[in-house]
Amino acid sequence: MKRIIAPSLFALLAALALPAQADSYRLPKNAVFEEECSSCHIAFPPQMLHADSWRAMMGDLSRHFGSDASIDEKHRVAITDFLVANAGGRKTGDTRDAQGKPLLRITETARFAKKHREISAATWKRPSIKSPANCAACHPLAAAGEYSDHSAVSPK
Amino acid sequence: MRHILIIAAALFAADVQAETPRDFLTRFEKEAGAVASAERGARFFTTKQGGEWSCASCHTERPMQAGRHAKTGKAITPLAPAANAERFTDAAKVDKWFRRNCNDTLNRLCSAQEKADVMAWLLALK
Questions:
Q1: What ranges do the domains of chain B cover?
Q2: Which of the pair, A74 or A6, is modelled with greater confidence?
Q3: Partner residue facing A42 (CB), from B71, B74, B96
Q4: Which of B55, B69, B101 to mutate to test the interface with A (most CBs of A within 10 A)?
Q5: What is the CATH architecture of B19-124?
């Protein structure tokens, strides 16, 4: 009996512990999302933004952070549904900006700021990093959803 | 019999989808009603055309090599067909990227002549 309970109890605890400190994101497979959202940047985990943020972003793709990222309507709807279904951010309390609009940048979320509080301004400016959106510069496994501290590197 | 059907289906599918980079040059020249100029294409590609970026800002001035997204830094595979066999083989992708990237670099769509010129230059790169 003990042998059965112990592993399942462990699994339960692990499952409960995960959402609180999950820097490893499970990326649900979605071919259209991967194809369309990882050309200019890595495919960011849907869990990193609230559903309202994804809806707002997907509603204005022709002006996507200064670039035209428009796609055909069929794919736009499919990707929006996928992002909304897998969205996160509900518990972080930082799903809106000061004007009450949904946050559009992952880097503006409180979670991002907290996780990167030790990164200096000079580090962000290194040519090898360039932008806080360049996750893979310091998180080599970012494309696979792996953002944990122990897998992070500091590029020169 | 089944094999013949499968082969026939595969050939049909290949016939419908596969396009070569030259097909796009032909298409754009036809739309423009004029022949392309690789020299003009090179100039267009490597100089700013009204926007903040030129094509070369991301694809480099010699797109036989890999580029980097001017904003995010993400690696971009070479654009010249001689260096990357996947380029210019899918009309939907070609149209999508010309639409977006012309909007980003020219603040408008590219003309058929501009696209033909760029194609001629990219095809001349070896």
A1: 19-124
A2: A74
A3: B74
A4: B69
A5: Orthogonal Bundle (1.10)
